[in-house]
Amino acid sequence: MSRILVVDDEESMRELLEIALGKDGYRITGAASGAQATELIDKGSFDLVISDIKMPDMSGVEVLRYVKQTDPGIPVIMVTAYASAETAVEALRLGAYDYLTKPFKIDELKANIRNALEKRRLKEEVVHLKRELKHKHGLDNMLGRSSKMLELFEHIRAVAVTNSTVLVTGESGTGKELVARAIHVGSPRVSEQFVSINCGAVPETLLESELFGHLKGSFTGATTNHKGLFEVAHRGTVFLDEIAEMSTTMQVKLLRVLQEKRIRRIGATEEREVDVRIIAATNKDLEQGVQDKTFREDLFYRLNVIPIHLSPLRDRRDDIPLLAEHFLVKARESMGKNITKIADEAMEILIHYDWPGNVRELENVIERAVALEVTGVILPERIPDKMREFSDASEIDDGSADDEVFPEEGVDFTERIASVEKQLLSSAMRQAGGVQTKAAKMLQMNLRSFRYLLQKYNLR
């Protein structure tokens, strides 16, 4: 039941409202003066205040001001027998929900009360949802203590408050959508929609309809009008995952939307304005795509306003124990199993593995281990064979002496150097997730020389 404080120096008015509103289930507390009202507000909590304006000791406007200083969320309805435009304007300026003149209709007052309480409930619900969003999809949901992750967190905080387009790159399984959601949750658009689409998972013939919508009858199967994701996310955020898989035809249409901030549904003649923030993601090298003519250069520069690159898990091994423990808790609660920890030997295997599937692969491995484990501790035997074999191989010494031992016939120096070069190039490309500029930087080479060697050894 909502608690309402009625402030009026006329006892008959307080009794009238107590009877009339009490029938609707409201709990009414009366105050004969403004001073008594402030005491009651200090002692208890109220969902709404109804206050007369003309009172001998303290005016209703002063009561309103006190309520808003104490709790700005409490709606206040002002009533008076001495209506004046100046007083009404002052009350509304200070935050009054409404202003009624005596004698007023009880039904009108009740409607105002219902609307005010509903508005307050919706505001509180939005605040609650924002907290839930922040907990589920914000930075609190991203785990990491390595320097790379701490740097990423700072980057996300700085980027979120802007309205700039973001391009998130990184290998599959590194958490690109998590980053996109964290940016949205930290942005002024958090109260609006976050919609995502995997551009590689939707056929080209349907992608335009999914993004921009269509009118009934515009093509076979279009039996109703359909609102596209850009319209759904108006004032919110659109996440375009696997943007590199988008056809060049669709790239042209997307570019136009980014430039004009207007969309046209399939079959429509008029355009609609849309205000959305774009976050795109890919696990491919878009710069290489530009060179190969598979990705438009102008669209690339439109998307690459703020680039964020996610490091693969093998480059931030300090995060593996933290992530593994998190996934253990998540899996055991889901399965109702009492598994308390990961054995040290099993954790060592996890730390030394290279994780081509990154964080997603780690979560799957822990979930599998929890499902199979019959003791209270995840043992090395529950880790997949390939990971245990990888760990064993990484511990084998490559040589017993520092000097190279040459065979009698000698070695081909050029061939040996070429072999080392190819190995370094391949390793750098893997660790850089296929991003050539990053791989070249790892090898302290300029991009032109790096690409020359890729062509030389046919590693493209």
For the record, the count of structural domains works out to: 4
Radius of gyration from the alpha-carbon trace, in angstroms: 32 Å
Can you count the helices?
19
CATH architecture of the largest domain: 3-Layer(aba) Sandwich
The overall pLDDT average reads 87
Report how far the terminal alpha carbons are from each other.
70 Å
The parts where pLDDT drops under 50 for at least 5 residues are 396-401
Q: Estimate the strand proportion.
A: 5-15%
The CATH superfamily of the largest domain is known as: P-loop containing nucleotide triphosphate hydrolases
Largest sheet: 5 strands, parallel
Structure description:
By secondary structure, the protein is of the alpha/beta class. It has 4 domains: 3-128, Response regulator (Rossmann fold, 3-Layer(aba) Sandwich); 138-311, Rossmann fold; 314-394, Orthogonal Bundle (Helicase, Ruva Protein, domain 3), CATH 1.10.8; 413-456, Arc Repressor Mutant, subunit A (Orthogonal Bundle), CATH 1.10.10. It has 19 helices and 16 strands. It has a 5-stranded parallel beta sheet, with helices on both faces. A 5-stranded parallel beta sheet has the order 7-10-13-6-14.
